[in-house]
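SEVERITY: medium
COMPONENT: batch folding queue
REPORTER: lab tech (J.R.)

DESCRIPTION
The queue accepted two submissions in a row. Attaching both inputs and their returned structure tokens so the on-call engineer can compare them side by side.

ATTACHMENT 1
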Amino acid sequence: MYKSNNPIPSYKNDFLDWLEIEKGLNSKSQENYSKFLEKFLTWLKLNKLNKLKPHELSPDHIRQYRISLARQISPSTKKTLKKTTQNYYLVALRSLLNFFADRDILSIPSDKIKLPRKKSVQAVDFLNEDQLKSLLEAPDTSTIWGLRDKAILEAFYSTGMRIAELLSLDREQIKLKPETENLELRIVGKGDRPRPVYFSREAVYWLRQYIESRDRQKESLQEKALFINFRNKKSDNHRLSPRTIQISIKKYAIMAGVPITITPHVMRHTFATNMLSKGVDLRTLQEFLGHKNITATQIYTHVTSKRLRDIHRKIHDDKA
């Protein structure tokens, strides 16, 4: 280990290169780390610490930075930053300290930065069977965009895909023969991890209806994206945006009379909860969802535990 004479901010580009080469992070992840680390570098500058060298960074500096994060007001919510948001900034700083250690640059150990504790049980919103049925029936399939939205909802529920994964699908990836009833597709998900996803018979049926209707429209034949915005005449890129999907799903939730706030991720939660309730084990569900760690999948265990408890109580109450 050696004491560097270079200030901490001067290492930003080398740190991002290290993330790419040594850690194998993709460009989007690097962009996020850059944004989160910039918060710390800005804090250094505001506190006239931008010439601070790695070995001069002290536990008190870390404490003061954490206090500033905890007290910061979000411009959008007008509330203090959530602990999960604070964690993003602290994880980026910890990674920078790991970079210093990897380069034999003397600095405070990364494990000195403790992350704020999350709630022991994370709330998971999901649809019950009646709510799901009402939501899936909400789109008007007599229109091209209604067919598209119906296919999207069915695909969300059948595959458990994230919104970015679904919207990145291209038309050429969906090869449906006349006899095709179920479809297996290999996608590259979060963290560049490939995994298979499965479209049910119902999802395949509505995909087929949407694609056949879409392909009859001449202006759509050359579109690369699978799910496109038919009303976007001003742009050359007609691939649907996440925002458009979110607005559509909320509209259908209102039409269906679903009481909870519906997002694409609620559809993913519904997929996962349904899998567990049908007997799928956590390790298998982890593969379905494309989670890197099983801990990410474990948020669903309390949902199924409650379901089992309710069933147990109902059975025993009926006997009373």
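ATTACHMENT 2
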Amino acid sequence: MREPPTFPRQWEIASADLLDETFSSLIWKVARDDGSIAVVKDVKLFDDMQDELRGAHLLAWRRGNGLVRLLGQDGNRMLLEFAGERHLSENLDEQSDIVATDIAADIMQRLHASSEDAPPAALQPLAERFSSLFAKAGQDRLAEDSAPYVEAVTVAQRLLDAPCGALPLHGDLHHDNILFGPRGWLAIDPKGVLGDPGFDAANLFYNPLDRDDLCLAPERIAGMAETFSRTMKQDPRRLLDYAFAYGCLSAAWHREDGNIRDENRELAVAAAIRQVRRGF
């Protein structure tokens, strides 16, 4: 059992329990001196830790609109509003996928709402986030391999060259990063990206990860595209293109990690999305 670290005195933390440990962070559920509950995200020291820390800039800028509030920061640790423990994936199981999609669409509207404040300078440009896809496609071109990565990078470049605006984005929105709690549905764990809002919808097509019966279903793919098109005021074909490109990007990340099983899973869903896209 892990012992909780020493937290900054000004956070007024009375007790802490380890809620979760991910590859990147330790997540502590903490009770504060005033009786309130909060969460501490303690980012581990690893090569890509900036991918986690950039999210703090977005949290501070968004000020609780659609996202949990950032209550404090001390180096690699963030004191966060407690968002609840009910994930959107659980709501999907108990109600319906359509209801879950509507909730995700509402979250994105709040995340993308206008602000009088300038976007944080530290956000990652969307083109930079696609770097692994561009690298994999470059390797495939040299090998004269016509794998989906080459097609995906062409789609991604077209989208990046003609964005529908440039907004601060969550960057990793999916069913387990949306929670229900005291303030209703809120997103957690943003990556902090700047670019076309269509990118934020992409990962939702691939989730929940254990529901390939949904993720591979053409009617579900088309329905999500139509819902997000209506709420985001974007062409559903663009949203499907983003979903296809994102899936191949995610597969490229898995390839870099040597995770062939998840790479193949992402490519299978991407192929289903591409097929639906051809019918639009």
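NOTES FROM REPORTER
DSSP finds eleven helices and eleven strands in the chain.
No errors were logged for either attachment.
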